[in-house]
């Protein structure tokens, strides 16, 4: 929430690229239930657009719901291990790798830097589903599509608890 407030206090005028603000009659397609003109879209693939993306006031050109980013390629699932960066989080994917010589699996993991839209408010340990998109920066090639809060059964975090 703090990064949304920081963006609102920038000196330049923040606007969505696909909207014309000086129109006399706004297009009904881009008007939400509150009567505010805002562009949003469905990313498809069975993912619903969050209500915060439709009714929110944030401006994010890299958001898959309100920006100029399309999701194509891989859809992955992982655990959020850090969200200290602005609009970016680190997601850990655990997997097993088969060693032919020993006829056993070994545990491995991979960390992904993923763009996190302001419409999500995740906590560390939440499960996130993210999809591949065009390169957004030097290390970011994925975008969060859905965040599922962690279950409240036991608070012990096992590194290789869920696959």
Secondary structure layout plus pairing:
Layout: H1 2-8, H2 51-55, E1 75-85, E2 88-99, E3 104-115, E4 127-132, E5 142-148
Parallel strand pairs: 3-5
Antiparallel strand pairs: 1-2, 1-4, 2-3, 4-5
Structural class: mainly beta
String of helices and strands:
HHEEEEE
Spatial extent as radius of gyration: 19 Å
Give the CA-CA distance, first to last residue.
30 Å
Per DSSP E runs of 2 or more residues, the count of β-strands stands at: 5
Number of helices: 2
Bin the strand percentage.
25-35%
In the predicted model, the low-confidence regions spanning at least 5 consecutive residues are none
Largest sheet: 5 strands, mixed, barrel
Question: What would you say this structure looks like, in words?
Answer:
This protein has 163 residues and is mainly beta. The chain is built from 2 helices and 5 strands. A 5-stranded mixed barrel has the order 1-2-3-5-4.
Outline of this structure?
The protein has 163 residues and is mainly β. It has 2 helices and 5 strands; from the N terminus they run H-H-E-E-E-E-E.
Overview features:
single chain; about 160 residues; mainly beta; about 5% helix
